[in-house]
Amino acid sequence: MAHRFRRALVAAALIAGPGGAPAEDKKPVRPQATAGPITPFAGTVTSLTFSPTTASFNSTNPDGTVNASATVVSWRVTGGTNTLTWTLSVRGPASGSFTNCATIPNSAVRVSAPSGTVNGGGGSYVAGGTITLTSSDQQIASGLEGTGTRNYTANVTYTIVDAWRFIPSGALGCTMAVTYTVNAP
Which residues contact 17 (CB under 8 A, 6 or more apart)? Predict the structure, then answer.
């Protein structure tokens, strides 16, 4: 069994507003947290945060790929052993698309966590490669738990591929809530 901790991030895809100007969306973050059973000597995730809380995609001429600024996901693990592996996963909404922009599917978004840090206890960070966003948890990073209390960060990036194929909704901002899950068994 693993200790799970989840939080949601609103990723706003602001492709273009009226007249080609970027639209703005200031929707609140809807955090979600769940915890599963904890096994003896298991690591415990004691916090999970991310900043900024909104990843924005802005483009008035979205030929090819549109990138968002990186989101830093941070968490703390206490307990556990250096023989166990933690994982960081991400998933998109069950609806399969952006809110207010149903023509932009989850599958248009690529997510990766190419770099990160571990502070204390001998833990490690391993990038998991780029994934195509779906409504199921997909691992984007992992590493050894180490011992004692460890603080982790992951630099998560978002990209919309072939953005020219998607018609923006006009004045409405397009949003997609994603959920991060940290497992520390």
Answer: 23, 24, 168, 170, 171
CATH code at position 110: 2.60.40
Spans in the chain with pLDDT lower than 50: 1-40
Question: Which whole-number Å values give the CA distances from 162 to 34, 107, 118, in the listed order?
Answer: 35, 11, 34
The DSSP bridge partners found for residue 5 are 182
Question: How many of the other CB atoms lie within 10 Å of CB of 49?
Answer: 14
pLDDT in tens, 98-151: 888 888 888 989 999 999 999 977 889 999 999 999 999 999 999 998 888 889
| Domains identified in the chain, total number | 1
Round to whole Å and give the CA distance between 121 and 126: 16
Q: Which two tokens stand for residue 2?
A: 């693993």
Give me the residue label for tokens 């023989």.
83
Cβ pair 177, 12 in contact under 8 A? no
In terms of residue numbers, what domain contains 125?
3-184
